[in-house]
Design the sequence.
């Protein structure tokens, strides 16, 4: 039986405190957030939706003052928080409440392991499992306006109205297929990663074409990226609003040390050039003064064509297993896992699995991938 989606607005601390106490007696609650982020680094919480199987509650972050009951609820290990595609929601909670909800159950991850499709949207999932259409016409709404429109309230309520029913259906499928523990493991990893202390020291490694730079240029790029990460947070600005990665790459490649050349770098916002030119030039100068023993090592170039046959063999192996198991291949392995495995055996090294393939995935595909890699290496050696 589906619960009504007529929303219950919560903007008083005493209301929320009472509800949180009640929800802590439940095994699971449905959770969703609405937020704004167009002009800020951090998401701004606009609404918190909770479904408890009896009603849909819309909690106003702009009005609630006492957040302690919510924090305690989100950390209650006896209450599973059910969300869908929750990575951005976790950022909202981290910023707004200072906590990451746990334990959590991501219905998008669960749907993939249940064989319903990879990266399935919530509307598609509800239609697939319950045959119910959910409108998505308020996706780009202003969630910080008050009062919210009737359409916004309905949209927000529908995001949690059916979630616990879907959760129950997914649990049945996963238990029958003996895949529930896999989902729990991946969801626990989401929590662990969201709680990690942010480290900006390797941000330079994610810059496009950073592999083309020499070690001293990488030393410059590393410090520029650290500055961008810190300042974007401190000013609460989107990274690209401060300065884009290609601009940082260009500064590092040319080791720019004067305003005249800095002003010619494409796409540096005029505001950044005006406010931060001296800082950027000082960062370059300081990085260039570093002893070469502190320079980063050159980054790996893209895999050579000669590694193509091995990569193809590995992907074919996973594809065949995934088809047999009726699973999306994407839930088993990521592109960077393939690459890390291939690189580990280059130049005569012994093939090593990425950490992600050493858990429950080892028995499914990890061991087989090692066998494929070693067989391919032996074949190449005998040619």
Sequence:
């Amino acid at each position: 039986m589906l619960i009504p989606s007529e929303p219950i607005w919560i903007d008083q601390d005493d209301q929320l405190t009472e509800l949180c106490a009640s929800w802590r007696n439940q095994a699971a609650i449905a959770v969703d957030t609405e937020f704004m982020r167009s002009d800020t680094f951090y998401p701004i919480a606009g609404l918190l939706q909770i479904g408890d199987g009896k009603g849909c509650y819309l909690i106003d972050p702009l009005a609630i003052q006492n957040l302690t009951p919510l924090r305690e609820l989100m950390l209650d290990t006896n209450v599973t928080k059910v969300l869908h595609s929750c990575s951005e929601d976790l950022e909202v909670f981290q910023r707004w409440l200072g906590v990451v909800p746990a334990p959590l159950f991501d219905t998008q991850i669960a749907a993939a392991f249940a064989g319903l499709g990879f990266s399935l949207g919530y509307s598609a999932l509800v239609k697939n499992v319950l045959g119910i259409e959910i409108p998505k016409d308020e996706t780009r709404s202003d969630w910080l306006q008050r009062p919210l429109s009737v359409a916004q309230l309905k949209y927000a309520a529908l995001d949690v109205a059916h979630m616990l029913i879907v959760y129950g259906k997914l649990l049945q499928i996963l238990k029958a297929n003996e895949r529930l523990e896999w989902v729990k493991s991946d969801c626990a990893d989401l929590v662990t990663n969201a709680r990690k202390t942010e480290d900006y020291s390797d941000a330079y490694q994610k810059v496009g074409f950073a592999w083309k730079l020499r070690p001293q240029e990488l030393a410059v790029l590393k410090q520029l990226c650290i500055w961008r990460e810190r300042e974007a947070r401190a000013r609460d600005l989107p990274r690209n609003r401060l300065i884009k990665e290609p601009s940082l790459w260009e500064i590092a490649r040319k080791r720019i040390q004067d305003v005249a050349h800095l002003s010619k770098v494409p796409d540096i916002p005029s505001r950044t050039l005006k406010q931060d030119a001296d800082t950027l030039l000082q960062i370059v100068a300081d990085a260039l003064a570093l002893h070469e023993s502190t320079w980063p090592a050159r980054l790996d170039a893209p895999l050579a064509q000669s590694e193509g046959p091995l990569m193809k063999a590995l992907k074919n192996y996973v594809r065949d297993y995934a088809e047999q198991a009726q699973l999306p291949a994407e839930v088993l392995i990521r592109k960077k896992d393939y690459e890390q495995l291939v690189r580990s055996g280059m130049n005569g090294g012994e093939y090593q699995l990425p950490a992600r393939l050493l858990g429950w995935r080892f028995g499914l595909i990890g061991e087989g991938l090692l066998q494929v890699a070693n067989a391919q290496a032996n074949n190449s050696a005998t040619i």
Summary: The first helix runs from residue 13 to 23.
